[in-house]
Amino acid sequence: MATNPLGWIKQKLFGQISCQRCSELMQLMTDGQASAAEEKEFNKHIYDCLPCYETYQLDKSIKEMLRTKLEKKQVPDDLIESIRKKIRDTA
To answer: HSE (CB half, 13 Å, CA atoms) of 78?
Structure first.
C-alpha cells in the first residue's frame, strides 16, 4: 500500500503499484532480469514517484560504476583448493 492516503487512492484508481513493490522490481530492473510486464509496471511507477525514481537512478549508477571499475582477475588454482580443503576440514 502507498505510504500516504492520496497515493493509496491513486493506486486504487489507476492501478499504480506501491513503493514497496517498486523496490522489489528495482533489483530485477538493475540486474536486467525484469520481464516486459514488470518493466512496464516499474516504469509507470517511477514516472510518478520522485523518491523511487531517485533511488533507482542512484542504484543504477552505483551498479554501473562497480561494473566498469572492478577488474576481473583469475584466482590461482592452489588458493581455490586451499579454501576447499579448509571448508571440508571444518564441516
So the answer is: 0
